[in-house]
């Protein structure tokens, strides 16, 4: 074995590898593009392989939603991907609660995101997951850290977000639009880094500084998502082995991300952290392994930044199309808080804004930040809708499609109606398995309440001060999504900003 490994290393380093391995990659690519056509000739698989869905649908998630709507069980199987996809709430509950242990993230998923997330909570199963979740649950459940999160978000809104948007007021006369998606990404990155690391990245300053760390996260997220969408893992694994193409770029990004994480950890240990409130300081009291600690924190940063910025972008796209909803949010705020534009002073006051809460939930029903989530079946199983699932099959539940199911939300499911969440003016939760935007069951999002607080704080502060006009051509008024671990508008969300 040592001889074989040595021979392989010599071959990889030789000039001959420049000729041989591109040919191997081409061969493997052709093999795995051709083989599924022989294996399965059903319309779904052939449409996926030829990408002809693009002729009818703007996004892959819309095609899946179409297929799932027309399935009697709200479940489909794409043979070329060995992927069973469902929009059936009973199946979601079965996977996330009833048979939780039979549907872990799985080794395939962990391998895809392993370079980026390492052993972080979002990429592990078993004892490692239970250990991290227990710590995170204890820390994120504390009133002190929720108060700290509220203070961090409020400060970022008042000192950076509002002044930046104010600087763009009136620029529409000179053609000066602002990419609101980029602004929200910067805001959520500043916010999560301050909350997680105690680090001020200053991405939202008026000069729009470029953050190498944020750029590395963006690219690493996109390239990791491309791994997941590949018809076969062999191509990207060979590219990773040779450190070429997209895998070389991914490796460089991850090196940058891990370097900063370790620098922050070492600085914290040097300065002491007993009185700090940020998440890193709290985790450092329990975890001694700095590499493991870095994986945990990078996972929280990635999740906290991308999901919040995605949710805010979709929310303001919808609000731009529904001025009556904006008026209702303002009226409620005037009634509950008062007519001034000052932010709420505490989280308890925010809980009284039922229409605002309903608006945020309704926005994520139609545009969930994470459009689908996958598990892997350990042992042969049968889902509640009688779908047989073979061991090793990827099983995906699809919140994006579920938000578009008449059987779940009624015949008006495609309409943006915050009122569907209200009973006598009071916000009412629904079964989490028909609305798994924050996952559900044992893996329910621990940062849910803090994320909602952040979303509502931003929405309330901005709609009471500004009016946003979309600066999109008429033929681009339907959102198109870029590949990534979370939903992002392709081309951003350009707007003109006006004062109320």
Structural account:
The protein is an alpha+beta fold. It has one domain (40-499): Cytochrome p450 (Orthogonal Bundle). The protein is 56% helix and 7% strand. It is built from 20 helices and eleven strands. It has helices at residues 2-13, 17-39, 43-50, 60-69, 89-98, 106-117, 126-140, 143-166, 180-197, 212-229, 234-242, 245-271, 279-284, 290-321, 323-336, 347-350, 354-366, 399-402, 406-409, 448-463, and strands at residues 75-78, 83-86, 178-179, 373-376, 381-382, 388-389, 394-397, 422-423, 426-427, 466-470, 494-499. Strands 1-2-7-4 form a four-stranded mixed β-sheet, sandwiched between helices. A hairpin with a 2-residue loop joins strand 8 and strand 9 (426-427). Helix 8 packs parallel to helix 20 (448-463) and helix 12 packs across helix 14. It is globular, with a radius of gyration of 23 Å. The termini are far apart.
Q: What is the share of helical residues?
A: 55-70%
Given the helix and strand composition, which structural class is it? Answer: alpha+beta
Gross geometry: globular
**Measured on Cα atoms, how large is the radius of gyration?**
23 Å
CATH domain class: Mainly Alpha
Which regions have little confidence, pLDDT < 50, spanning 5+ residues? 1-5, 30-38
How would you summarize this macromolecular structure in one to three sentences?
GO terms for molecular function: heme binding; iron ion binding; monooxygenase activity; oxidoreductase activity, acting on paired donors, with incorporation or reduction of molecular oxygen. With 500 residues, this protein is of the alpha+beta class.
């Amino acid at each position: 074995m040592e001889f074989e490994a040595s021979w392989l290393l010599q071959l990889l380093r030789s000039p001959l590898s420049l000729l041989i391995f591109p040919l191997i990659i081409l061969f493997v690519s052709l093999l795995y593009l051709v083989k599924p056509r022989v294996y399965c000739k059903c319309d779904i698989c052939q449409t996926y392989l030829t990408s002809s869905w693009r002729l009818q649908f703007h996004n892959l998630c819309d095609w899946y939603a179409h297929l799932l709507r027309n399935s009697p069980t709200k479940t489909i199987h794409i043979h070329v991907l060995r992927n069973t996809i469902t929009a059936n709430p009973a199946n979601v509950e079965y996977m996330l609660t009833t048979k939780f242990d039979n549907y872990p993230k799985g080794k395939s998923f962990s391998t895809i995101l392993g370079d980026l997330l390492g052993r972080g909570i979002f990429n592990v199963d078993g004892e490692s997951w239970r250990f991290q979740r227990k710590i995170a649950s204890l820390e994120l459940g504390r009133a002190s850290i929720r108060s700290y999160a509220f203070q961090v978000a409020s400060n970022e809104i008042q000192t950076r977000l509002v002044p930046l948007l104010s600087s763009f007021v009136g620029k529409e006369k000179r053609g000066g639009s602002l990419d609101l998606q980029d602004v929200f990404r910067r805001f959520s990155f500043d916010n999560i880094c301050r909350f997680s690391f105690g680090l001020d990245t200053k991405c939202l300053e008026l000069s729009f500084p470029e953050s190498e760390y944020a750029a590395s996260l963006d690219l690493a997220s996109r390239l990791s998502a491309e791994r997941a969408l590949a018809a076969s893992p062999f191509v990207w694994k060979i590219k990773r082995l040779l450190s070429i193409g997209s895998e070389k770029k991914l490796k460089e990004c991850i090196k940058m991300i891990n370097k900063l994480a370790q620098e922050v950890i070492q600085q914290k240990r040097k300065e002491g952290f007993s009185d700090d409130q940020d998440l890193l300081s709290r985790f450092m009291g329990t975890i001694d392994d700095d590499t493991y600690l870095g994986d945990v924190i990078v996972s929280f940063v990635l999740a906290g930044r991308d999901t919040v910025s995605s949710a805010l972008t979709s929310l303001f796209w919808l609000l731009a199309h529904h001025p009556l909803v904006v008026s209702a949010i303002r009226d409620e705020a005037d009634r509950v808080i008062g007519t001034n534009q000052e932010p709420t002073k505490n989280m308890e006051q925010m809980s009284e804004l039922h229409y605002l809460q309903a608006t945020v939930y309704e926005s994520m029903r139609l545009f969930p930040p994470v459009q689908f989530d996958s598990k892997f079946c350990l042992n042969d199983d049968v889902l509640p809708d009688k779908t047989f699932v073979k061991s090793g099959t990827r099983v995906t539940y699809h919140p994006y499609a579920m938000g578009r199911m008449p059987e779940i939300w009624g015949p008006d499911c495609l309409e943006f109606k915050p009122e569907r969440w209200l009973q006598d003016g009071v916000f009412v939760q629904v079964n989490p398995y028909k609305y798994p935007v924050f996952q559900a069951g044992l893996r329910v999002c621990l940062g849910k309440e803090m994320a909602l607080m952040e979303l509502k704080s931003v929405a309330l502060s901005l709609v009471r001060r500004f009016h946003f006009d979309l600066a999109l051509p008429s033929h681009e008024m339907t959102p198109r999504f870029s590949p990534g671990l979370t939903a992002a508008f392709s081309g951003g969300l350009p707007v003109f900003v006006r004062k109320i």
